[in-house]
Amino acid sequence: MSQWETPGASDEWFTPPHVFAAMGVRFDLDVAHPNGLTTHVPAARVLWADSLAQGWSGFVWMNPPFGGRNGLEPWLAKFFDHDNGVALTPDRTSAPWFGSAWERADAVMFTPKIRFLRPDGTEGKSPANGTALWASGALGVRALTNAAEAGLGILASPVAVHQQRLAA
Q1: Residue of 34, 87, 40 lying closest to 59 (CA atoms)
Q2: Structural domain count, the chain
Q3: pLDDT score of 108
Q4: Rounded to 5, what percent of the chain is helix, strand, coil?
Q5: What's the rounded mean pLDDT across residues 95-102?
Q6: Is 28 helix (H, G, I), strand (E, B) or coil?
Q7: Helix, strand, or coil here: 156?
Q8: Domain of 141: which CATH number?
Q9: What is the pTM (predicted TM-score) of this model?
Q10: Burial of 88 (0-12, 13-18, 19+ CB in 10 A)
Q11: Taking a C-beta distance cutoff of 8 angstroms, is the pair 92, 98 a contact?
Q12: Which domain holds residue 6?
């Protein structure tokens, strides 16, 4: 998220506690945890190095490095292949990766601009856009449903999900 502050100042931006409070769940694994830093992620275990090369297990939280133009694609592919968790990305609906993720999501929440935290715990400036929380699997959908009920954002389900439910 460094494009929202001083370019190149930091790639480390943390999800604030109110996001996790709204979801009301505990994660088994934070798959993109910053090495040696404390965050507010309610997760039993963390991965901080080579996360994409490691196996993931349980209910995962993923706030990956937003990186360059297509930097989210490998993270989202692994997240949806894992099929059990919640991921946070920018809500860049015009990006090609967004459409691919939308087709695989069980639910998506669009939030107002979240003021992410710096490593020292201070609040950053508002980002240029809102965020999307992606649910994969039943526990992810429950977390986003809880967050919607808490007023965190707008919950949506891709049409394909509705068609699958109607066909069942």
Answers
A1: 87
A2: 1
A3: 97
A4: 30, 20, 50
A5: 92
A6: strand
A7: strand
A8: 3.40.50
A9: 0.87
A10: buried
A11: yes
A12: 2-167
Helix (H, G, I), strand (E, B) or coil at 16: coil
Across the strands, what pairs with 132?
89, 110
- Per residue in 1-19, pLDDT (tens digit) is 334 334 444 467 789 999 9
Walk across the sheet containing 43-46 and list its strands.
Answer: 43-46, 27-30, 60-62, 85-90, 131-136, 107-111, 154-156
Spatial contact of 60 and 82, defined as CB atoms under 8 Å apart: yes
b vs e for 117-126, b when ≥16 Cβ sit within 10 Å of the residue's Cβ? Answer: beeeeeebee
Q: How far apart are CA 70 and CA 85, in angstroms?
A: 21
- Do 153 and 111 touch, CB atoms closer than 8 A? yes
* CA dist., res. 57 & res. 55, Å (int): 7
Read off the pLDDT of residues 126-144 as tens digits, 9 standing for 90 and up.
Answer: 566 789 999 999 999 999 9
CA distances from 109 to 8, 29, 34, 47, 118 (A): 28, 21, 24, 25, 23
10 Å CB burial of residue 130 (0-12, 13-18, 19+) is middle
